[in-house]
Every structure is written in C-alpha cells, then in structure tokens.
Write a structure and sequence with these properties.
Layout (H helix, E strand, L loop, with lengths): L1 E2 L8 E4 L6 E3 L2 E6 L22 E4 L5 E9 L7 E9 L2 E9 L4 E9 L1 E2 L2 E5 L4 E9 L2 E7 L6 E7 L3 H5 L2 E7 L6 E11 L11
Antiparallel strand pairs: 1-2, 2-5, 3-4, 4-16, 5-15, 6-12, 6-16, 7-8, 7-15, 8-9, 9-10, 9-11, 12-13, 13-14
InterPro entries: ConA-like_dom_sf, DUF1349, UCP022704
Pfam families: DUF1349 (PF07081)
Organism: Streptomyces collinus (strain DSM 40733 / Tue 365)
Length: 202
C-alpha cells in the first residue's frame, strides 16, 4: 500500500520487515526490530544474505534534495535512523545518525556489491539533520547540527543511467546488535533542485 506524506510530491511504499510506520503532525515514526540491518560486509565474514531493515521509499523524478531531522531512541551500538537511497539489490546507500559504537555519529555506507563504512562527525544528543541530494547519476550526502549550516559528507554514484533514473529514496531504521529502536523524522522537506554548492555550508 502506498503512503502519502504531505511534505513529499511522490508516494512511499514499505520494504523489508514491518516498520510500524506512522505519520502524525509532521512527524514520521518507524521501528526497527531486533538485529535488523542492511549491510554487506566487505571482510568476507559470514552474513545472512536475507538481512534487512524496515524501509519506506519512493521514486522522485529529476534533481532533488530530501531533508529531515532524525531522532533515534538509542538502545544499543549501531542503532540508527537513516536516509536511504536504493537502485538495486546490491547497489544502495545509507546516511545515518548511528550509535557508533558509544557516541552518536553521522555515518555513511555505500554498497556496490559489498558495503563500505565511514564515520563523519559526532553529535551531542540524539538528533541531527540529514540531506540526500541527486543530480543525474550523482548523489550527495550532507548533515547539519542545526538545519541551517550543512557539512558536506559524501559524493558518489550508484549504478548506471537507467538504474539511477529509477532510484528509490526515503527512510530506514536499524538495530543490528540490539533489541530494536524507534526513530522519528520531522521537518521533512523536498526541494526539486541540486544544491548550488556542495561545500559552502548552504
């Protein structure tokens, strides 16, 4: 079933385990269950290929920015709230506020067959602003402590022209080691344009 958020010009659909998604008074809420995650380890260790986490995704057209403030009810290491990009089963990316492993941190994962993993900056408290942008085949990740001045985190591509044109973007919750956590996203905003400058804080 499609979900309509008044802040977004495209419908969203649920993927993965049940996230108990709800939207009320401008706040989107989702739940990750015990040991739910999306990560394909690059180290060759055993991994359940069916590992998954609740996602609520849609397919915007053209250039865009998706912005939200994420707040995570941290209970265990690597609990996270995520803005997520998906172009294929092994081609996707996460921009996370994650308990990594003992302090809230802005983290990114880009998966091209296997996942990488990179930490950006730490956060005081349980909230941060996240932004995913796209132009053509390129995606950019930014994060902000106040929603006004943005820190450039990452620039990358996923898949080819055809796959990226059909990219799904949206929201994900994860609790890889824990018994689950609740995540909220508010101040959700959609802009139909690529940022004018990735590195000037705007």
């Amino acid at each position: 079933m499609d979900t309509e958020l008044p802040e977004l010009p495209f419908p969203l659909r649920t993927y993965g385990p049940d996230g108990h998604w709800s939207h009320e008074d401008g706040v989107l809420t989702g739940w990750a269950g015990p040991r739910q995650d999306r990560f394909v380890t690059p180290t060759g260790e055993a991994l359940d290929p069916a590992s998954d986490a609740p996602r609520l995704l849609g397919a915007p057209e053209g250039d865009f920015q998706l912005i939200a403030r994420v707040t995570v009810g941290f209970n265990a290491s690597f609990d996270a709230g995520v803005l997520y990009v998906h172009v294929g089963e092994r081609a996707w990316a996460k921009l996370c506020l994650e308990y990594s492993p003992d302090v809230p941190t802005v983290c990114t994962v880009v998966t091209r067959g296997h996942s990488d993993d990179a930490n950006s900056f730490t956060v005081q408290g349980s909230s941060v602003w996240l932004r995913v942008s796209r132009t053509g085949r390129a995606f950019a990740f930014h994060a902000s402590r106040d929603g006004a001045r943005w820190t450039f985190v990452r620039l990358f591509t996923l898949g080819g022209e055809k796959e990226t044109g059909a990219a799904l973007v949206g929201f994900m919750a994860q609790s890889p080691l824990g018994e689950g956590c609740v995540v909220t996203w508010d101040h959700i905003e959609f802009r139909p344009a690529w940022p004018s400058d990735l590195r000037d804080g705007s």
